[in-house]
UniProtKB/TrEMBL annotation:
Residues 78-441 form the Solute-binding protein family domain. Transmembrane segments: none annotated. Residues 1-23 form the signal peptide. CDD domains: PBP2_NikA_DppA_OppA_like_20. This is ABC transporter substrate-binding protein. The keyword DNA repair does not apply. Keywords: Signal, Transport. InterPro entries: Peptide/Ni-bd, SBP_5, SBP_5_dom. It is found in: Cell envelope. SUPFAM superfamilies: Periplasmic binding protein-like II. The keyword Signal applies.
Length: 525
């Protein structure tokens, strides 16, 4: 039975980023050497309940909750965390068994057993939240707890990616006594069995994490406490870093701030720059009278100038992207460039004329003001100018804060809207599967029977991911032909930190989620 009064701890999320070593030093002053490490981000969580989140809220979940599998430092495939071991027990990749570590407890001291794991997974599907991760469990038939420590997952089809799914923070294990089976928690007194517990949380402002003494897992904590501060914009966040109010920034640094920081070098701050796998893209609503027309979508794809966006808006801190699968992952292509080539008004006009469209097409583009960085508004202004200047479109821009923005696209209110994506796991599958099918991460049904009925099932039966490149190439070509989604750019990741902070190079798992426990002060050695 759910007992809300027992929950004394709270949980929050931090934003994902991809770190690769390579630093410069910048001007600023270091923070106080005592107290928690303070991390700044512009991306606050949308929910504190794992069953309701398929977004950046996962960041904190990784640090507060625990999953059966995760990514220890240096691992590129999931390894046991709450589990002692996991493996497929059949040759067809349809039965997956995990044995839990002995003596697992939640942060409040209550027992964590196989029934809690089963309850947590079943709860995700039972609640089936519009913005939740139930779509990740499409291959799961049922979960079986065969004892205190053994959990067996029975799949309805072969799925070599299922261990990756279990490693996502969406599959966080929760206490059955404190999390209702059929509804989301709305309060902030959440807790799990992860490396930290949440001492306090102020919505949109601050999350205070402290060491969870009951934790058992692979994390070797290099600090005792981390405070996450949520900022509305990059400039305010960078000012806090320079003044020493925060120690680390990640996710949300504006291009102008990055360029300024790179130009002003000293020994007080360090900048870490690396290639990311986050992407930005447009989504077209098939229920809108204009956006539902293939010719309209294809004309937009023909006009979008990604290089101009990357250079003039992001000052070359992102790279143009011509596929929903980013560069660096097996299966990446340049399918949109192969079909459309360079931006061309003449070609776009011909696409519309061939469909009998001779008037300017009115479209409303929506974007969120507080999720994907300070440049988002400027990017949409650039898109509007590109399309308006063609003489073929009249673009109206609208925006909302993230929490109400999500509600809007789930209700199908937006003709065209912007989204970003950080991977659930580092595989091309995760840049295709979440966006297609009747239930997807966009809240906009996208039936694609060839992808969902043939290509993804076939690729998931193959454990050697290098053997499924042709399937992913075909899937991406279908996405180009449909043009329901238009990729815009692939991110680079920048983290600025006080020079006395170490561990940044080890703090990111392959799904680009920060493992706060790796951060520490040099003076604490």
């Amino acid at each position: 039975m759910f007992n809300r009064n027992r929950g004394l701890r709270r949980a929050a999320a931090v934003a994902s980023i991809s770190l690769v070593a390579g630093c410069g030093v910048l001007s600023g002053s270091s923070a106080d050497n005592s107290g928690p490490i303070v991390v700044g981000t512009t991306s606050a969580p949308s929910t504190l309940d794992p069953a309701g989140s398929w977004d950046g809220s996962w960041e904190l979940f990784r640090n507060v909750y625990q999953t059966l599998l995760a990514y220890p430092d240096g691992a590129t495939t999931p390894q046991p965390d709450a589990a002692q071991n996991c493996a497929f027990t059949d040759s067809g990749s349809r039965t997956y068994r995990c044995e839990l570590r002995s003596g697992l407890k939640f942060a409040d001291g209550r027992k964590l057993d196989a029934q809690a794991v089963k309850y947590s997974i079943d709860r995700i599907r039972s609640i089936n939240a519009p913005s939740g991760p139930a779509g990740l469990l499409g291959s799961l038939d049922r979960v079986q707890a065969t004892g205190d420590r053994e959990v067996v997952f029975h799949l309805n089809k072969p799925d070599a990616t299922f261990p990756f799914v279990l490693a996502t923070p969406a599959m966080s294990i929760v206490d059955p006594d404190d999390y209702p089976a059929h509804s989301l928690r709305k309060d902030a007194s959440v807790y799990g069995s992860g490396p930290y517990t949440l001492r306090s949380y102020e919505d949109g402002k601050r999350a205070e994490l402290v060491r969870n003494d009951n934790y058992q897992g692979f994390a070797d904590r290099q600090n005792d406490a981390v405070t996450i501060r949520y900022f509305q914009d990059s400039a305010t966040m960078v000012k806090a870093l320079r003044s020493g109010d925060i120690d680390v920034t990640y996710r949300g640094l504006a291009a102008s701030d990055i360029v300024t920081l790179e130009a002003r070098r000293s020994t007080d701050l360090q900048l870490i720059d690396g290639t990311g796998t986050d992407i930005s893209y447009l989504v077209f609503n098939p229920k809108d009278p204009w956006a539902k027309l293939p010719a309209v979508r294809k004309a937009v794809a023909q006009l979008v100038d990604r290089a101009a966006i990357a250079h003039s808006v992001y000052r070359d801190t992102v790279d143009p992207l011509y596929s929903m699968v980013p560069a660096g992952l097996t299966g990446h292509t340049t399918a949109f460039f192969d079909v459309y080539g360079d931006p061309s008004t003449a070609k776009a006009r011909r696409i519309l004329a061939d469909a009998g469209i001779t008037r300017r097409v009115p479209l409303t583009f929506w974007y969120t003001t507080d999720r994907y960085g300070s440049e988002t508004g400027r990017m949409f202004q650039e898109l509007k100018q590109q399309l308006d200047d063609s003489g073929l479109f009249t673009i109206t821009l609208r925006s909302r804060p993230w929490k109400t923005y999500v509600v809007g696209y789930q209700k199908g209110e937006y003709p065209v809207f912007g989204r970003g994506w950080f991977p659930d796991f580092p595989d091309a599958d995760n840049f295709i599967a979440p966006f297609v099918g009747e239930q997807n991460a966009l809240g906009t049904p996208y039936p694609s029977p060839v992808i969902t009925g043939r290509l993804l099932p076939r690729s998931r039966s193959e454990s050697d991911r290098a053997e499924v490149v042709k399937d992913f190439e075909e899937a991406q070509q279908i996405l180009v032909n449909d043009t329901r989604l238009i990729p815009l750019w692939q991110g680079r990741q920048y983290v600025a930190a006080s020079d006395d902070i170490s561990g940044g190079e080890k703090a990111l798992d392959p799904s680009t989620i920060m493992m706060m426990w790796e951060l520490h002060r040099k003076t604490s050695w």
